Amino acid sequence: MAECTSCCRCSEVCIAFKLGAVEHAPVHRRREVFTCTACWRCARACPEGVDIYRECMLARRRQGLPESYRRALLRLLSSGIAVPAGDVNALREMHGLGKVRLLSSGELKKLLPGVERQLRR
Amino acid sequence: MAWLLYPGCMVLTHFPEYEASARRVLTELGVELAELERFVCCSSVFVPSVSDEWLNMAAYTLALASEHEGLLTLCGTCTAVLRRAVRELENREARSRVNRVLAELGVEYTGAEVVHVLEFLEDRLQELELRGSKRRVAVQNPCNLYLPGLSRASRGALERVAHATGAELVEAGDECCGSAFMLVDEELALRAGRRRLEEAKGAEMLVACGNCAFLLQKQLGGEVVFFTELVEEALNG
User: Fold this and answer.
1) Which among A34, B2, B69, B181 has the fewest CB atoms less than 10 Å away?
2) Is the CB of residue A118 less than 8 Å away from at least one CB of chain B?
3) Nearest CA distance, B35 vs chain A (angstrom)
4) Which domains does chain B have, with CATH numbers?
């Protein structure tokens, strides 16, 4: 398993750092672990080949969720769509696209039983 | 065998024109497309931020694709997440565990290739007769498509598509648009996106991801064109 040496090259290529929104630290160890566009320039820049994506996700789980993520997850559990949505099939029809069936909340709970329990707590 | 075209949440809810133009261009290439009858999010950055159950959710769509040639994607994020899932599911134990969950929903994952339409088109660009684009475009790369170890596209794919259509290319650097900042810091997202539009110097942003289009066009009112729209126009040029 590749290990971080804190060289901070990941931070130097990070757009959040360039815009002055986060501290200068290894991306997966900084406080603002959610202030990330998931562009993964950090992962490309890492000379050690650290799986920064995975490390960031684990750091997020330790830190707890911002409200916007909580809302997105609740949407995911009820509709299977991560962003606010209107009538997607009406929109599809207007563009000559076939209808899709969205998964039911029962089906979604089967896919994400632990997430459902976690959000309910 | 037909390919399954997966729009992802952002294209499904905001940019049907992108999916529709991709369908027309792929049909022109003689690609057979199956109907995506059931839709669920790939799990995006949301589920991985809280649980390893993201793999169940990503695998559902991959299971649908298992019955076809593979999965064609339109967004960078979906592509990266689904490819990570394919890699995780190479582990027999993980695959069995996920398939036990999927069995309750009546599907099974047996293997699937994930290809972004940009990658697909880049490989087969010479098969299309393109000409006459009068557009002036600047490239906005779909960052997630270039996750290390999981990328197939070359960094210049959008430039090559633009060049093939005859569009004028404006050099605008290669920074991320900042779209995903919207989730936690809207002001920061707008600042990053404005910077990209300034770098485009009045050219339209050529995009290959619904998330980039959402920030640059819907939030900032910038001029945006999907690469499939550019190609479709040049087919008739």
Assistant:
1) B2
2) yes
3) 7
4) 3-118 (1.20.1050.140), 127-235 (no CATH)
